[in-house]
Amino acid sequence: MRQINVRKVAIVGCGFVGSASAFALMQSGLFSEMALVDVNRERAEGEALDIGHGMPLARPVRIYAGDYGDIVDASMLIVTAGANQKPGETRLDLVKKNVAIFKNIMAEVAKLDYQGILMVVANPVDILTYTAIQYSGLPAERIIGSGTVLDTARLKYLLGEHLQVDSRSIHAFIVGEHGDSEFAVWSSANVSGVPLLDFCDMRGHHDHEEAMRRIEDSVRNSAYEIIKRKQATYYGIAMAVKRICEAVVRDEKSVLSVSSLMNGAGGVEGVALSMPAIVGRSGIETLVPIRLDPGEQEKLKHSAEVLKDVIREAL
Question: What is the C-alpha separation between 315 and 311, in angstroms, rounded?
């Protein structure tokens, strides 16, 4: 078996998300070597130079433009390549364009006997995670979609603002599709062990239904609002990429709402979507069986069906 360099990462796709992820990872100190791969090699070279010039001000990382051969010994392969989401375009509108791109990338990965972890970040991430599972030749547990890690962070941020409490003390998840059918698991949400609605009452917020609807809608529409104002989203997802890499490289066994292949959990199978999972050096170790109330269970099944419909059409 080929030796993996745990301190090496490769990023395929040097657009806004890929370059922001490279910058976040350079600052993290997780990796000492970073290969940037893009169909436009000059773009990869430019990003490598731009970030590399900051090395005297940060931590040393060997960063360079490479090709698929440079992926082979990386412990993490992050794929951000794909067409950009346009204003008014849903994540699922991108599917046919990006599935074709992704199949070509996975064909190159399949040639390498790659032994590391593959992280899918390009959108629609659940469809492309499923595509990677089907075409990369890698075992499903070593394929991680960024899923709703960012959406969950957005939920915690908004709840923190609403309750005037540190968002890191909030335990709540957005699950399902990273897209229009995603939903918040309110039934198990809590603030440092205190049920969310009890904490809301304690902070003087009593109109729970309206607040939950408003916050959940805001999470779901966050990307659209950002794209409307600045044409793309990339800083938030770059931080989510860094967080997932930390869990893998440090073997943290952290619970993150990543996208992975469902095999019956929550009554869902044959599709990739986000549910909380234990993430470590080997990839996805196991899903975490969080409690869903009957309404949430139906929302999960609906989200799965939305994705299955797209898979049937695009793959």
Answer: 5
Give the containing element (helix H, strand E) for 10: strand 5-12
The alpha carbons of the chain give a radius of gyration, in whole angstroms, of 19
Whether residues 117 and 197 share a domain: the answer is: no
For residue 90, the model assigns a pLDDT of 66
H helices, E strands: number in the chain: 9, 16
CA distance 274 to 255: 12
Q: How far is CA 263 from CA 143, 181, 284, in A?
A: 14, 20, 13
What's the mean pLDDT when you consider all of the chain? 94
For 51-96, write each residue's pLDDT tens digit: 999 989 988 999 999 999 999 999 999 999 987 666 776 656 778 8
The more confident residue out of 97 and 159 is 159
Active-site residue, 178 included: yes
Q: For 249, phi and psi rounded to 5 degrees? A: -65, -40
- Structural domain that includes position 32: 5-145
* Predicted structure pTM score: 0.94
By mean pLDDT, which of 2-6, 34-38, 149-153, 172-176 is the weakest?
Answer: 2-6
CATH value at residue 105: 3.40.50.720
If we measure between CA atoms, which residue out of 149, 155, 104 comes closest to residue 126?
A: 149
Active-site residue, from 171, 178, 206, 302: 178
Number of domains in the chain: 2
* For residues 300-308, average pLDDT: 96
What single DSSP character describes residue 29?
T
| CA 9 – CA 71 distance, rounded (Å) | 8
CB 175 within 8 A of CB 185: yes
Question: How far, CA to CA in Å, does 2 sit from each of 34, 73, 116, 144?
Answer: 18, 7, 10, 21
